[in-house]
Amino acid sequence: MVSGPDGSNSDTHEPPGEMIAVSLWRGQGSSGGLVRYDVPVRDNQTILDIVTHIQRNIDSTLSYRFACRVGMCGSCAMTVNGVPRWTCRTHAGQFTKNGRLTVEPLRNMPIIKDLVADMAPFFDKWQKAEGRFQGKDSRTDDVEPVRPDSPERKTADAGIECINCAICYAACDVVAWNPDYLGPAALNRAWTLMNDIRDTAGGERLRAVSAGDGCHNCHSHQSCMTFCPNDLNPTAAIAGLKRMAVRAVLKGEL
């Protein structure tokens, strides 16, 4: 059901039973607001199940993203009661308070429509942080071996499970204050590449991430680590970049 202006509910032919009052952000760009929908409680239902129910049974104009539904792609990330989450892995019972739930798009990015955030600024930061591998070998050369027990490989391993869901970016207060800040995901990616012995762009990358809107802007609030669904620690990666940049300055390389 959806509440009308007079507080009445439209009939969606759902059987009577326990309901959740779900407030969804609706609108385009910066204009919009929360709209209430009454959704029936189901066993083991996730936030994504609730949003899908609304789109399929109540209002087909609702826009949102999802793909894998099993916590692999990260495309279903939204803000649930003020917390950025993968909605496919978040059970409604964990977040419903007094029969109420609020779902909004990820913050720190423009809103395209309803629950769909524009990811372009997020990925632009990856480019600015030189977050792409650059090697010296061609496709005809033998693959350079990397020892799995080497310190560099272990350091890189700690950050390579990022799936670009942008939850850390949405959770970052520094991004909220400074939209030009590169953000935890892009800097975490740069850190993994700085520890890849096959990569040849370390100097260029370090200059990019230590510039005005780079790693030195991080206040170490650790929101990125707190909310990362894959239990990564971008704050530690950013601290590593800070140390690396200071060493480069002392050596006259920056």
What can you tell me about this protein's structure?
33% of the residues lie in helices and 15% in strands. It has 254 residues and is an alpha+beta fold. It has two domains: 19-117, Beta-grasp domain (Ubiquitin-like (UB roll), Roll); 120-250, Fumarate Reductase Iron-sulfur Protein, Chain B, domain 2 (Orthogonal Bundle). Strand 3 and strand 4 form a beta hairpin. The longest helix has 17 residues, at 234-250. It is elongated.
- Please give the domain count: 2
- Label the overall shape: elongated
Radius of gyration: 22 Å
The secondary-structure class comes to alpha+beta
CATH topology of the largest domain: Fumarate Reductase Iron-sulfur Protein, Chain B, domain 2
Biggest β-sheet strands, sense, barrel: 5 strands, mixed
H-E string: EEHEEHEEEHHHHHHHH
Distance between the termini: 60 Å
Q: CATH superfamily assignment of the largest domain?
A: Alpha-helical ferredoxin
Short synopsis of the structure:
With 254 residues, the chain is an alpha+beta fold. The protein has 10 helices and 7 strands.
Break the fold down into its secondary structure elements and pairings.
Blueprint: E1 19-28, E2 31-40, H1 47-58, E3 77-80, E4 83-86, H2 92-95, E5 100-104, E6 111-113, E7 116-117, H3 120-128, H4 151-157, H5 167-171, H6 173-177, H7 184-194, H8 202-209, H9 223-227, H10 234-250
Parallel strand pairs: 1-5
Antiparallel strand pairs: 1-2, 3-4, 3-5, 6-7
